[in-house]
Design brief:
homodimer; seven-stranded mixed sheet; globular; six-stranded parallel sheet; alpha/beta
């Protein structure tokens, strides 16, 4: 048995059995070891950002740590942006990164690079295996790290010789450390604070899970406080039967408006909210001046136990208010953003998984889908566009029996379009809606936000994706995915009805 | 005038007038400043790896430092792999990376990340501007750094407030430090060494420039030493009229064979050669045991002055042997790798720029093109695949009057296919040949190299890009580029004849 084989066995016995891979030569022994273990599901991505983003989507839907397989520092670089997003989602991921044999790193070879260095700028845990005999334990430690503190990025760098040299037994993956909890007295003070006028409870991460959000909603209903969630959340249950919750906003002024009346903000599993960007003369924080921020339970602590303790402390008896099914009529006639929202809300299948990277368009899709059939909604967490198609890929691998709907802009989808091929190869049940507004609409908005009103040639050419326009039906076909282009509401409705009633990947280019 | 404006003015007066850009919100003031300066050519790339790779290609063809415009740590991450390649090519590039306003970095916003940290793992120079008043001087220092030591990666991080706050005047870019030269006594010893039996002169980088390679070749002809270049070189003149030079190899055994008889290896502008990867039981270095490695002039020193000094020391009188035009017959019948080489060699236009990321296929294309019409040849320098289409983009921006021929595998082209759109938008004169062998052929080769003979399902599915196959004609069309699929030699010849006789981007999918 060599180091690579002990690692694969350690991963499988430790519960890591999916690997989103983009391997190269330095990972050949790991690939050979995978070959002897068909119980490890290997999903090939033609670009590393697809692999890391898919791992994020897989974790969000299963809570199980997947692996990625990457190739030296540049391969990690290609996966970096979606690891950044995954980190913000608090997803647990183990990256296996091959590197040159230790002695080969003395010489100037083309692929020599600072693999540990780049990993450390985004991973919670980085380790370089020093010896084949250490690989199994290093792998077990990496898996444990990925499961620690509610989900972390763990990177194990395998110099090629540690993979091919002889090694002994696999290692056992130890359970992660118990999550920290706030003291009972702290919970009691939070309970008192929530009973005061102007109190709000802001929850995020695991606290948004279907069971916990109900606990939080009962607490809110009982105390009279408001229940808030961030604008961007890793996963939230929405639609008919889901608990009612207010969301923060993307636009600075809207965000300030949501927070204006909040006197005490109790954080549970959430960071203190900050605006997405800073702008000249605008605040970084949406809270009103003098708001008391009560940090009940940090995002890396046990928000489940904390909410239950708070619930008990308050002796809550009431039920949580829930959304009631209300579907809009099917739109007809010309295309508009409102009609896209109506069509999606009316047709979204029960238990769909919606991946939202629609950026400017999504703002029109969230209100009407609030009372659609029950579904899960996954947001872009780190602001690094190019997470939509990968997240959808991973979610579909995780949940083969559920329809995945990927909402994405034409600008953002271009960063990781290679995922379409993985969807085709794995026959993933993903319907991708590309909102083809022919440009980075968000940048036009932001140019105005920073105080620039007139757009000249250089800016125009950096905001527009025109001359030529992208042909998304051709791009889908090139990757082996069928596609439809729609230019009016009737076409959109027909395309969604067709795509939602069949299995497998399909792309709809929504010209808007 | 704000910080961004002083930076753009500093760049323009300092000779940086091309910017390969993928901007986001934090760069909006820089974009607004660019708008007031149409003399800065902005080239939009739909993925950052396209921008950084294009900058590399632009520098290799002009020797002029271009800028890239990137968006925070994840944007830098997306550009990382091709910055790695550019670093290995010793290309000079200035990356302008927007970041959050300094005070906003205190808060947990989605895009908060370690921008300086990731930059430092690949850049020679990293600076974070602390104040709008410093931006112009920081920019001037970054440009100087990019021009130093024969070409470097320089990264200037602009917190948004340093771009939008008031600033004074632009700064003047000072010339880079004079390159170091070896002592005259060291040159004299090298001259003696080159006259001994078994001597070889290995040159790389600038020493491969058209003038200097002739000097080196005359030295070799005069002393009787062999003249060598690495397998991967940033740019080399080839074809009829070019000087004859031996190249090292990719395959370990072939590389050892080239070096077997070398007793003294004199390095000028070159690193001591190392094999691409390490393999179990194979050497890292191709040199024979006991080879004397004479480090005459390191890659960051003045190889031009060194070669001229060596030439003078030796009192060279002879001419350099040169290649003579010899074109193969046009191939007919079924497709083979040899026939692809013949067709390319026979039809390659005079002064073409060949970008080579053909990996396994390219090994069949280099021998026949050695005596083709004169051309420049650019290699993948850092082993991070996905550099071909970007390099071709930058080379075509640099040299609008020359035909660019991009040789790429279907596996490698997928990493940065978004460049096709930039080729269409800028109407770049690039003919891309995608060698569609439906997989990562190099990995099959490498699996055997590391001693694994049987390929099972998991490995098979990670080497093959099949089920579905990629449709490159559709992918090109999706990006606005015309395409042709050829499956035999006659079709290839016709497609090349057509593509070489018209201007503008075209893609040929070569099924092989």
């Amino acid at each position: 048995m060599n180091g690579a084989e002990t690692l694969v066995k350690t991963m499988l016995s430790g519960g890591v059995n999916v690997c989103f891979a983009n391997p190269g030569t330095s990972e050949m022994h790991f690939v050979a070891a995978l070959d002897r273990h068909p119980e490890m599901r290997c999903v090939l991505c033609l670009f590393e950002g697809g692999a890391t983003g898919a791992a994020d989507g897989y974790y969000r839907m299963t809570g199980q740590v997947p692996a990625t397989l990457l190739h030296l520092a540049p391969g990690f670089g290609n996966g970096y942006a979606n690891l950044h997003n995954a980190k913000k989602a608090r997803s647990g991921i183990v990256n296996i990164v091959g590197d040159h044999a230790i002695w080969h790193q003395h010489y100037e070879s083309p692929l020599k690079g600072d693999t540990a260095g780049i990993s450390q700028t985004v991973s919670h845990f980085t380790r370089v295996s020093s010896d084949a005999a250490m690989v199994a334990q290093d792998g077990a430690d990496a898996i444990r790290a990925a499961r620690s503190n509610g989900g972390q990025i763990a990177t194990l760098i395998l110099p090629a010789n540690t993979a091919w040299d002889k090694a002994d037994d696999p290692a056992r993956v130890v359970a992660p450390p118990v999550l920290r909890r706030p003291a009972a007295s702290h919970v009691a003070r939070a309970a008192q604070a929530l009973c005061q006028p102007g109190a709000a409870l802001l929850i995020d991460g695991r606290a948004l899970g279907e069971d916990l959000i109900s606990v939080a909603a009962r607490i809110a209903a009982s105390t009279g406080c408001r229940l808030l969630a961030p604008y961007f959340v890793p996963r939230i249950r929405r639609g008919a039967g889901s608990v009612k919750i207010e969301r923060l906003a993307y636009i600075v002024e809207e965000n300030s408006a949501v927070m204006a009346e909040v006197k005490t903000l109790v954080l549970c599993g959430a960071h203190r909210p900050a605006n997405f960007f800073a702008y000249p003369g605008k605040p970084s924080l949406p809270e009103a001046e003098g708001t008391h921020v009560f940090d009940l339970c940090a995002p890396d602590m046990d928000s489940a136990a904390t909410l239950h303790a708070l619930h008990k402390e308050l002796g809550v008896q009431v039920d949580a208010p829930r959304e009631v099914l209300a579907l809009p009529a099917l739109p007809t006639g010309g295309m508009s953003l409102d009609k896209i929202g109506q069509a999606l809300a009316a047709l979204l299948p029960k238990d769909a998984i919606v991946v939202d990277e629609g950026i400017t368009t999504s703002r029109f899709l969230t209100p009407p889908t609030k009372t659609a059939r029950p579904h899960d909604w996954l947001c872009l967490m780190g602001g690094a566009i190019g997470s939509g198609l990968p997240l959808a890929t991973g979610a579909a691998v995780a949940c083969p029996d559920r329809k995945v709907v990927c909402l994405t802009g034409d600008g953002s989808a271009m960063y990781t379009l290679q995922c379409l091929w993985t969807m085709a190869r794995e026959n993933l049940d993903v319907v991708t809606l590309v909102f083809a507004n022919r440009g980075y609409q968000i940048l036009r908005l932001e140019l105005a936000n920073v105080g620039v009103d007139d757009v000249g040639r250089n800016a125009q050419r950096m905001f527009d994706v025109e001359g030529p326009t992208l042909d998304w039906v051709a791009l889908a076909k090139g990757h082996g995915v069928s596609g439809t282009r729609v230019t009016d509401a009737d076409g959109l409705v027909a395309a969604l009805q067709a795509a939602f009633s069949t299995h497998g990947p399909h792309l709809v280019e929504v010209v808007c």
